[in-house]
Amino acid sequence: MLARIVLAGLVVVSGLASLGCSESYKSGDKIVCISDASIWGDDDFAVDNVWPGLVLEIEAVNGKRLWVNNGKPGWLYQEHV
User: Fold this and answer.
1) Cβ contact 76:34 at 8 Å
2) Taking CA atoms, which of 15, 47, 50, 68 is between 20 and 30 Å from 40?
3) CA 81, CA 70: separation in Å to the nearest integer?
4) From CA 78, how far away is CA 56, in angstroms rounded?
5) Using CA atoms, how far apart are residues 65 and 77, in angstroms rounded to an integer?
6) What is the CATH number of the domain that holds 10?
7) Model confidence at 44, in pLDDT bands (50, 70, 90)?
8) Burial (CB count within 10 angstroms: exposed 0-12, middle 13-18, buried 19+), residue 77
9) SS (H, E, C) 8-57
10) What confidence tens digit (pLDDT) does each residue in 45-75 have?
11) Nearest CA among 76, 55, 56 for reference residue 65
């Protein structure tokens, strides 16, 4: 029974997460990561990692990339939010 409730919750959350893809993010917004991903430096090398549930603050926006800092600053693609 508990597994069904958890599964139903995940379905709802993932559906809401897909709606967030069209959001317009701005500096200062708080975001929640929805998947494991890398944070990329300006030189296109991974500098850090994020995981589902991690809350970060956006420092800058460049197209589909969000500048965040989880100890090491870099770009996170919106598809992971």
Assistant:
1) no
2) 15
3) 14
4) 12
5) 5
6) 2.30.30
7) confident
8) middle
9) HHHHHHHHHHHHHHHCCCCCCCEEECCCCEEEECCCCCEEEEECCCCEEE
10) 999 999 999 999 999 999 999 999 999 999 9
11) 76
- 3-class DSSP state for residue 6? helix
CA angle (22 as vertex; 18, 28 as ends), nearest 5 = 105
CA distances from 50 to 3, 20, 37, 57, 70 (A): 26, 18, 5, 13, 8
Q: Which token pair is 32?
A: 């929640």
**pTM (2 decimals)?**
0.70
pLDDT of amino acid 11:
46
Domain of 37 in residue numbering reads as 2-80
**10-27 pLDDT tens trace:** 544 555 555 555 579 999
pLDDT at site 35: 98
The per-residue pLDDT for 48 is 96
